[in-house]
Design a protein that fits this description.
It is elongated and about 65 Å long. It is mainly β and 239 residues long. The chain has helices at 21-25, 29-36; strands spanning 9-13, 46-48, 51-57, 63-67, 76-77, 79-84, 90-100, 107-114, 117-119, 127-130, 135-141, 151-154, 157-163, 170-174, 184-185, 187-190, 193-199, 203-211, 214-216, 224-226, 232-238.
């Protein structure tokens, strides 16, 4: 069989009444387009970072999905992605739904609603039996890698965390040292992972990490503020 090189275009058809995570995610064009690009056919759920892409055959009139972590109370509608050739002719259509998995969830169990009928996902062989509902549920396991981050361990004890290149000398300075960065040197607890546990009084504290004369914010802590002299500093509050 001869093979021809054809230019294909992807178009997404949105259900008019659906208010789902896929549409919310579409506001992040970069992430959304990258996830859509992974859909080439109907198949088992695709896990990509904190997202799951579910697909279904487009021959049905409507496909919905409901999740255990929502107690199956909400049915989210699938969208349709069309693959077209250079002349605009549709050569393939796939229903899909993109779920941004909640941080606290390590396993997603779900059921599909295809043309009004509840069913397991025919494209997902992984299923479990739910004794509460006495139903079989399709399931997807989420493998998350724990990323160390600065956090309050107990009362006034804070663990500061920095990740970088092995062999660095990383120092900590802030309002609690009058911005003197020579007092605290972080310990390299693993290659490229630097930590320091420090007791701080109640209140809001501003701080930064130092590598030589260069200061920078704590990337594991999203809380930021400007200091009096116009620098950007990380912020941590002890209650």
């Amino acid at each position: 069989m001869k093979k021809f090189l054809v230019l294909f275009l992807l178009t997404v058809v949105l259900p008019l009444a659906a208010q789902d995570l896929s549409q919310d995610l579409s506001q992040d064009t970069y992430t959304y387009n990258n996830l859509i690009a992974l859909i080439d056919k109907v198949g088992a759920p695709i896990v990509e970072d904190d997202y799951i892409i579910f697909t279904a055959d487009s021959s049905s009139r409507h496909v919905g999905i409901a999740f255990d972590f929502e107690s199956f109370k909400t049915i989210h509608s699938f969208q349709k992605v069309n693959t077209t050739d250079i002349d605009g002719k549709v050569v393939q259509s796939v229903y899909f739904y993109i779920l941004q998995v909640p941080k606290s969830v390590s396993q997603v169990s779900y059921r599909l609603v295809i043309d009004g009928l509840w069913t397991v996902d025919p494209n997902n062989k992984k299923q479990i039996f739910d004794p509460k509902s006495k139903l079989r549920l399709s399931t997807v396991a989420i493998q998350r890698q724990e990323v160390p981050a600065t956090e309050t361990l107990q009362k006034n004890l804070v663990r500061f965390v920095y990740q970088g290149q092995p062999g660095q000398i990383i120092r900590l300075g802030g309002t609690f040292t009058n911005w003197d960065s020579s007092i605290y040197v972080m310990k390299e607890s693993a290659p490229g992972l630097y930590e320091l546990e420090l007791s701080l009084p109640q209140g809001t504290h501003y701080y930064a990490y130092y590598d030589g004369m260069v200061s920078f914010v704590d990337k594991t802590n999203p809380e930021r503020a400007y200091t009096i002299d116009g620098r950007t500093a990380s912020v941590i509050t002890i209650n």
